[in-house]
Amino acid sequence: MLLQRLRRAVPPLVGGGVAWSVYPRELPTPMNTVLDIVAARLRADPTLIWVDDGTPEVLALPGLPQPVVAWSRRSLRTGLLIRTVLLTDGLPSRTRRELCRQAALHLLAETALRLGNPDLAARCGAAAFLDRDWAAPHADELEAATDSEAHLALWFFALAHEFGHFADPRPHARGPLTDASVRTMLLAAQHHDAHDVVGDVLRRRPLRPADVRAETVADLFAADVLVEAAALLLPGGGHPVRVIGELLLAAGVVAAAERCRGLCALLAGDARSDHLTYPAATTVRSAVLRAHLAAVMADRYSTGRPSPTPGLQRWDRIVAGVAEPLEPALDLLDLAMADAVRHALDDTLPVEHLLDRLRVQAGPMLRAEARDFVHLVQASGRHGQFLDELVFILG
Ligand SMILES: [Zn+2]
To answer: Contact 380/122 with Cβ under 8 angstroms?
Structure first.
């Protein structure tokens, strides 16, 4: 019954021609440990759609009798790439920004393809491969590894976030995330809208607190699931400071990927997820997540003994100490995202010029990446003058 409905609902979501399967829940894997935690928290049996290729996205499937999320194996690679670029020592920040911009353009191109916009896919795809002399890190080892805080966050944060969209946000709306408090936080974060290049031209309505709350609740759900999963899966239950750092970073990467998706949907005339494109919303999500992590850790690691500093205050300070060195990296990701979005929206730059430059550049470093992109275009069955030309150059 469910399988029949999935056969109808999944292909339009992940893209026609993309292979998928229902993840077997009976295997004794870390994935199933995480799905068990999700099941207990949602009080519903989650279904995971495993997508081998396809766009590197993690997507919830609404409208089915149980929570369903499609998870692409390639999302591991994108997550690892951004993490590596942001954290590798010794890279000049200009290089970091450029690499993140190219990664964002690549993601925009593939998302545009999935949403049926071949011209945007060509514009972003050409720019993603232009002047690119690096390949994404290999995700092969990652495929088997879930034994560190970093791996756990890479594998499961986006997944748990999407399942978090099936959690009930109403208790939060009555609690700390009322409309009024979300509005206050958004006002305080407004300076971040300097990175907002989507602007009111494309958006048709103001940002609604309920939308920001929905994303925030999904982030908090993901954090709760991962803290619990770390205790079960990592040697010694994982190190709380590393868990906090990886969760904050993963949340930033998820918000950046969602921004790409929101923009592509908006350009395709779908305004349902326009809230994802506001940088201030990301800032609010991150602030609430920090406060939540401090509370969760204070609860989990309370000794029961009287201590000179109350637990929550102590963990607030620890979380702030972890977040502070990550801030420049996440700000840079925000800037790189804005660069990519600006490129996607810049219709004064002819795609033909990008293709001409790419034609003389395509080198061996590009091949693995380009092959995946070309396969995706071919599987999608999408065509367009520029997209066909791009495939010809890369293929
Ligand atoms: Zn979300």
So the answer is: no
CA 185 to centroid of ligand 1, rounded, Å: 19
Q: Which residues fall within 8 angstroms of residue 141, CB to CB, at 6 or more apart?
A: none
- Compute, in angstroms, the gap from residue 309 CA to the centroid of ligand 1: 35
Q: Has this prediction a pTM greater than 0.70?
A: yes
CA 276 – ligand 1 centroid, Å: 8
What distance in angstroms lies between residue 264's CA and the mean position of ligand 1's atoms?
15
Is residue 328 within 8 A of residue 89, CB to CB? The reply is no
CB burial string 3-35: b at 16+ within 10 A, e below: eeebeebbeebbbeebebeebeeeeeebbbbbb
The strand pair at 47-51 and 68-72 is best described as: parallel
What are the boundaries of each domain within the chain? 1-72, 76-394
What is the pLDDT confidence band of residue 61, given thresholds at 50, 70 and 90? very high
pLDDT tens profile 204-223: 677 888 999 999 999 999 99
CA of 216 relative to ligand 1 center, distance in Å? 8
Q: CA 130, CA 102: separation in Å to the nearest integer?
A: 9
Q: How far is CA 5 from CA 22, 65, 73, 159, 370, in A?
A: 12, 10, 23, 21, 34
> How many Cβ atoms are within 10 Å of 204's Cβ, its own excluded?
9
